Each structure stands twice: as C-alpha cells, then as structure tokens.
Amino acid sequence: MPGKFLFTNALGSFVFNEKHNAVDGLLFHSIEDYKEKSIYEDKLRQRHGNLEAPTGKNLYDILSFFKNKKYFSEFQKKNLELTKESLRNSVSSDLLIIQTINTIDEIDKTINALTKRLRDWYSLYNPEASNKIKDHQKFASLVSHNSKSQLLKEFSISEKDSMGADLKQTDVSAMILLASQINSFYGLKENYESYLKDLEKEVCPNLASVVGVNIAAKLIEHTGSLKRLSQLPASTLQILGAEKALFRHLRNKRNLPPKYGLLHEHQLIQKSKKDMHGKVARALADKASIAARVDYFQGKFIGEKLKKELTDKFKIQY
Q1: DSSP 222-245
Q2: DSSP state of 27
Q3: Residue 19 Rama label (left phi>0; alpha psi -120 to 50; beta)
Q4: pTM score > 0.90 for this model?
Q5: Is the distance from CB of 13 to CB of 44 less than 8 angstroms?
Q6: N or C: which terminus of the chain carries fewer CB neighbours within 10 A?
Q7: What is the tens place of the pLDDT at every residue in 64-94?
Q8: Are 258 and 239 in contact (CB under 8 A)?
Q9: Do 111 and 124 belong together in one domain?
C-alpha cells in the first residue's frame, strides 16, 4: 500500500495521500521562498514522517490535481515568474565574452571592407600614398589628418609628379569623411578589446595569459562556454576551428590531418619554424587545457607559470 507523497512546485510544498488528494501544504509567497523549498519540505516531513517522491502514474495524477481552477491560474503565473528569473540568471560572463569577441570580429570585417574602398577611392586622387602606406590604420589616420601635398612631401614626391587627378575640395572631403569614420571604428575596436580584457581577468585569467585575450575569447565562443572548453581534452582543443580540415582528412586519408585551428594565430606558433608548428601547437594546447580547467574551477592564478614553461621550452617570447 503506497504511503503519502511529498510534491513541490512553484505554488508550494504539498503532501498527497494514496488517493492523490492534497492533505497538507505550505504555500510560497515569493520566488525566494521557492529557492528555499527544502525548509518547507523539512517542516512537512516533521509533521507527516517519511514521505515518498511521486513517480510514474502517481506523479501524473498529482500533476493533474493542479489543473483545478483553484490552482491553475496561480500555478501558471508562478511558473512564468520562475521562467523569467531563470532567463535573467542564465546571462553569464561567458555570454558577454562571446558577444564582445563577435562584435570585434564584425568591426574588423567592416574596417577591412571600408579601408579597401577608401584605398580604391583615394588612389584616384593620391595613388602614391595608397601604395606607400601599407598599414590600414596608419593609412586612414594620415588621410584624415593630412593634405595631399603634406603626404607627398613625406615621400619626397612633388605634386607635379603625382599621377593623381586634380579633384574639387568637395570630392576630397568625401574621402576624408570616410577615413575619419574608419578611424572611429578603430577607436571602437580598442574600447571593446579593453572591455574584453577586463572581462577575462574575472572569468578566465589563466587562459588569457597563456593564449592571449582574443584567442581565449574565440575558444570560448567556439565551444559555447568556459565549462565546455574545460571539459575538452588538449588534443581536441588544439584543432578547434579546423573541423572542416579534420573531416576532409577523415573522408580521404591522403589529406593530412590539421595540426591546429584557432591556435594558429598565436605568436608562439607564428614565431616558430614551420617544421615545429605541430609540436608547439600540442604544447600550447596542453597548457591552455590546464588553464581553462583552473579558471572554470576558480583555482589560483598560474597563467604566468604556464606561459613561462612554454617560453623556456621553445626559447620564444610572446
């Protein structure tokens, strides 16, 4: 013969008899009460002794009890409040990091597209400057702050020898306006990079120290969270971002397996010899994996120690 059942939902904690009728209960007055539901459940256990948790048909019948008009409206209202609370609490620092690095990537794409347009446009007026100044940020800054004659003077070229067209000031102003906007995008990017750095000091200081702020953010973005990243073996972390190359290798063994994915951007790999890239990537992934786990479990800061082990091993500073 079944005994009494203890069932808790958004409305409160209830005791049901074997016929699934409520014989006792303590109502919750707020979401905070629900969070402390164990206190209410203990009180009911003290009154009724041993209480079972309903399962199967017992659970179905007990849930049907709350379809009653007396409870249903309040039951729906309280569950909606709990859902809203859960959604608010689901916004983690991981998500802020993901949104920030995605924003930086979008700004980069915008800068590259607009700078290409500016170079094509400005080359009609001053092709020498566009050819001489390779750095995009420097190019946009010089164009927005210097006249054609000033730029040509820097390259020891007279205006007579320039192959650029003589344009009206209104035409030149349109180009300078675009250069100014590109400069503001660079400023915006720097602000977000600073914000990202501050976020990672709290969330993943060890990982950021080992792989750098941007790569740390991209690894978290690629996996969805620091928790998922910390659960991956180093061998998987090493090739994150190179999944297409891995699948090509699995389909056709003549294609070599990838040595790295997102880690390819790291200075340690960039500065090492080509035949060392695989070995460096493995070592970097090992340290990054350790760093991610320490960060997730909120351990001590060991980022500099892990970084030093890498620089000592490969004799490369970054």
Answers
A1: HHSSHHHHHHS-HHHHHTTT-HHH
A2: E
A3: alpha
A4: no
A5: yes
A6: N
A7: 888 888 888 888 888 888 888 887 877 789 9
A8: yes
A9: yes
